[in-house]
Write a structure and sequence with these properties.
Layout: E1 3-7, E2 10-13, E3 18-25, E4 33-39, E5 45-51, E6 58-60, E7 68-73, E8 78-83, E9 92-99, E10 107-108, E11 112-117
Parallel strand pairs: 2-11
Antiparallel strand pairs: 1-3, 3-8, 4-5, 4-9, 5-6, 7-8, 9-10, 9-11
């Protein structure tokens, strides 16, 4: 089983950039599709972006397409979310998640806070 630890959150001004990283433990990382989700205060967790196990296909929420980029390094068991042109409405707790292909995301990190000031 894979365990996930996020890092890289913080405070940034609107228009700035942050890079989130997700470090995965376990030998089966390459079997998993990986995703990033975010949760606003008092709201349900929402999908942000996903990348398939091979790193060849990525899927973005409309709200972040063109600003966020996901990548993975299967040799290092890491997934990275590069966030550019950040907006105050991007402020949320961001979670890394893993899923076997075709299945629901069922492995989650502890989350990292991203705050974008106006």
């Amino acid at each position: 089983q894979v365990q996930l630890v996020e890092s890289g959150g913080g405070l940034v001004q609107a228009g700035g950039s942050l890079r989130l990283s997700c470090a995965a433990s376990g030998r089966t990382f390459t079997r998993y599709d990986m995703g990033w989700f975010r949760q606003f205060p008092g709201k349900e967790r929402e999908f942000v972006v996903a990348i398939n196990w091979a790193g060849r296909n990525a899927y973005y929420a409309d709200s972040v397409r063109g600003r966020f980029t996901i990548s993975r390094d299967n040799a290092k068991n890491t997934v990275t979310l590069q966030m550019n042109s950040l907006k105050p409405e991007d402020t949320a707790v961001y979670y890394c998640a893993a899923a076997m292909p075709g299945q629901e995301y069922d492995l989650w990190g502890q989350g990292t806070q991203v705050t974008v000031s106006s």
